[in-house]
Amino acid sequence: MSILLGCIADDFTGATDLASMLVHAGMRTVQTIGILKEPVPPGTDAVVIALKSRTIPADQAVAESLAALQWLRAAGCRQTYFKYCSTFDSTDKGNIGPVAEALMAALDTPFTIACPAFPENKRTIFKGHLFVGDTLLAESSMRNHPLTPMHDSNLQRVLQRQTAKTVGLIEHSTVAAGTQAIQERIESLKAEGVGMAIVDAISNDDLLQIGAACADLPLITAGSGIALGLPQNFRAQGLLDVQDAARDLPQTQGLQAIVCGSCSQATQAQLADAVARGTPAYAIDPMRLAANEDLVSQAMAWATPLLNQGPVIVYATASPDRVKAAQEKLGVERAGALVEEALAEIARRLVQAGVRQLIVAGGETSGAVVTALDVRSLRIGPTIDPGVPWTVSLGATPIALALKSGNFGATDFFTKAWSLLP
């Protein structure tokens, strides 16, 4: 087996987001949940290994990422891609900087870029500052993120606090000048001893130019956006055919459900929209879980008679004030763990009850759910909204899964998704 692009993603929905972009650009892509013991199916162009390393201790994130790199190199990958969130979710201790440093050392490369831009989802970088829509990152809802609050919009400063390497900048004026100008700037930064560089990007055309300029870099670190510009490099080398890589997703017949753990503004709006359209919904309260109430059994008793009538929602989505109150009483880690474990067990029981089409909202929740379902790999299919495709698990009982990052998707996402299944 030999694959063209080997990707390491720091969370599950981020991995799906990246895989979706690669499929859209024509690469036959498989997403794995952790490191597989077996090879991926023949004809696979790209593999995205989904880790759960965004918020774990930095040394553990480094170890897991290096193990993933070892598997990818053994599979013959020609280029490595470290994928993180388009809002650069991290703390001053990492994990973006430490993981990038470790991968650079393992690949014996002195330079890489960092570009979380995803203009289609309104994540842009200008003068090294990350914007969410028209708002600076530090002034967006990310400033209140429960695990990785972002209080600095200057990515050059953010990354510099996480690495001993010098962090430079490739400004938009250079990017707008095209591929050759970007490559010349990279060589100039390398000569100055710069190890990593934030790259400005405000449009998909910018991402295509950046991708072309990075054809010879052993390692790219980025959000999912630059994936638009990488397949063209393999195609130019005669290694990749023009194809519709999302076609022929296996059909799944069964019941439908939504498990919703994200508390982002986007997910709150999506939940409200689905409920307003008549989708039955059941709330999971972490305080009641902490009091040892068997909400899992209660949720299943509520859902079971409704499943034959259409989709149901089980959710822990709540306002920032309610989330903060629960965290203050229970602690951040315990509150999150209680919810993740309950929603994952509910998802497992829903599948036992015949659910074969499942939407999961939230990166941490998605990770817990696929683990509970013992899903090891996914085939990537059509995009629902930018960054969120339908996938189908590879195994004896295929399950259609839409693993949605909390901030992604239009307001009607939950309703629209069902219509896009083959």
Task: Please tell me about this protein's structure.
- With about 425 residues, this protein is of the alpha/beta class.
- The chain folds into two domains: about 230 residues, Rossmann fold, CATH 3.40.50; about 160 residues, Four-carbon acid sugar kinase, nucleotide binding domain (Molybdenum Cofactor Biosythetic Enzyme, Chain A), CATH 3.40.980.
- The longest helix is centred in the C-terminal third of the chain and has 21 residues.
- The protein is globular.
- It starts with a strand and ends with a helix.
- The model has no long low-confidence stretch (mean pLDDT about 95).
Number of contiguous helices: 15
CATH topology of the largest domain: Rossmann fold
- State the separation between the terminal residues, measured CA to CA: 29 Å
The structure class reads alpha/beta
Q: What's the overall geometry?
A: globular
| Sheet with most strands: strand arrangement | 9-10-5-11-4-1-3-2-16-17-18-15-12-14-13
Give the C-level CATH assignment of the largest domain: Alpha Beta
The CATH superfamily of the largest domain is Putative sugar-binding, N-terminal domain
**Count of the domains:** 2
- Architecture per CATH nomenclature, i.e. the level-2 architecture of the largest domain: 3-Layer(aba) Sandwich
Taking Cα atoms only, what radius of gyration do you get, to the nearest Å? 21 Å
Reported for the largest beta sheet, the result is: 15 strands, mixed
What proportion strand? 15-25%
Q: Could you name the ranges where pLDDT drops below 50 across 5 or more consecutive residues?
A: none
Give the overall pLDDT as a whole number: 93
Helix fraction, binned, reads: 25-40%
- Count of DSSP E strands? 18
